[in-house]
User: Fold this.
Amino acid sequence: MKLLVVNGPNLNMLGFRDKNVYGSTDYAALCEMLTKKGAELGFEVECYQSNHEGAIIDRLQEALSDGTVGLVINPGAYTHYSYAIHDALEILHFPKVEIHISDVDNREDFRKISVTAPACDVKLAGEGVQGYVHAMEIVKERLK
Assistant:
């Protein structure tokens, strides 16, 4: 079973960003952790990151026909204004979980708005990188 993990802008900079907000895990370590946890859950995990909105949309559209059975997505800043990513998410008819490392609902006002979450089944925030693992478990449960 293929699980797609999509990360938006600046998430490739984990480990360099404010460690008080995003923790000290770097992007490579995050992907390694998710690949290992995915194998335990029976998933083949693909980690995909882009700083470009159109590339993220293209990858989501590819998921329609590449065997993907579930999605974990952290749209980064696109969370707050990308109706285009929202529309691409709506097309996908498998479990989708939006994840945020920080507690976006208790940060700046603009971060409290997610235009992409309504196109997902669940939104998780504030669990650090472990939120990705939680999201994978939710996808697995929803596939049963």
Notes: The chain has a mean pLDDT of 95. Helices lie at 19-22, 27-41, 53-62, 83-91, 130-143.
